[in-house]
Amino acid sequence: MDNQHAKCSGPTLFYTFLAGAAAGALAGVLFAPKAGEQTRRELKAYARKTEEDLIEKAKEARAALDEAIERGQSFVAEKRADVEAAVKAGKEAMKERMEKCCS
Question: Is the pLDDT assigned to residue 3 strictly greater than 80?
Fold first, then answer.
């Protein structure tokens, strides 16, 4: 009765998992409803479709990224212009103050 509560070690669990995976793969092959050639054709078609979808999504992501980069660059350029204008106005105001003060 003590064996029911015993813990399995890590390697034992790993090997048990591998054995289960192998048994599942073997059962899948043995009980597959379609012939191997047909299954391979369907897998190739699925892989091709998935590749095309992935390429399309990558293109969309790239376009969205390019747009975000462009908006970021525009934002930074606007803020830089605002800061430069504020610095220029501050310098001019300081210059006027100094001229009034020291005149």
Answer: no
